[in-house]
Here is the input.
Amino acid sequence: MPIIEVKNLKKYFPVTGGVFLRRTGWVHAVDDVSFTVNKGETLGIVGESGCGKTTLGRCLMGLYDLTQGEVMVCNQRVTKLSSSQRRNLAAKLQMIFQDPFESLDPRQTVRQILEEKYRIHRQAGADLGADILKLIDQVGLLPEALLKYPHEFSGGQRQRIGIARAISMEPDIIVCDEPVSALDVSVQSKILNLLLELQKRLGLTYIFISHDLSVVRHISDRIAVMYLGKIVEIAAASSIYNQAHHPYTKALLSAIPIADPGSHKKRTILKGEVPSVENPPPGCRFNTRCEYAKNICRRTEPPLFANGKDSSHLTACHFFS
Ligand code: SF4
Here is the structure.
């Protein structure tokens, strides 16, 4: 049973210009995207900067009005909620940010930061002190951390505080928006392992957004690859890594560095710039950079479809193999 259902989601932002700031166009940030996520699953969303992955995450959080389509989370539409429904949903759906420093109040101690969120959803009489001690232990920090301010921590420790704040609400789903991309590689794996451990222990569902396929691979059950506001390929993580179909996914995979110096992996260099999301190319959106593009690619947009052998591996390409 899906815990998240996204149907034909579109999110466009108006572009304004001129003296009167009239609308001159639309940024097609997310353009007709559909998928489901099951409880306890991790869906990785990957793509270059500007592909729409962060906007998609924010639509799931109910932070934007949708241009079109529907987002259901825990059987509730995330838009058009009453304020009490929104409060209830906000507890079930939390977010972890790329830069926890920006989302943590520098004037508050860690204890105050955690208490603030905790109080809103805790019942009167709950032992807040014991709960917060348990919480800080769950994310691998010592009790002394509760008395310190955010600037006294390293980047990895600050991300642990961000995670503690997210799980303090006992959510069902966490949207992780580039949670390790600002961290050193050695710290990245520790944070990813912590997220995996918490998922197992608390039965969490993750949407894991990243530009880095090697990071997404470590944590995801399934991966959706986005390009210019569209999902171009979605499949189990192992299928994406071993049998990628879409030329864009193949190019992203070829860019992952391999530790073995003897490896002769061929790297696909993508030509040209990512086209403007205000004016996406007709047909397949990847046609301006695809080495396999034919006339049909410039005319007709390929649908996302399965190749017969694996009905859960969907690709949007006229010629995938
Ligand atoms: Fe390339 Fe054409 Fe496939 Fe698009 S549809 S990825 S342009 S081959």
Summary: The pocket of iron/sulfur cluster is lined by residues 246-247, 284, 286-287, 290, 292-293, 297, 302, 317-319 (CB under 6 Å). The radius of gyration is 21 Å. The longest helix spans residues 185-202. The first strand starts at residue 2 and ends at 17.
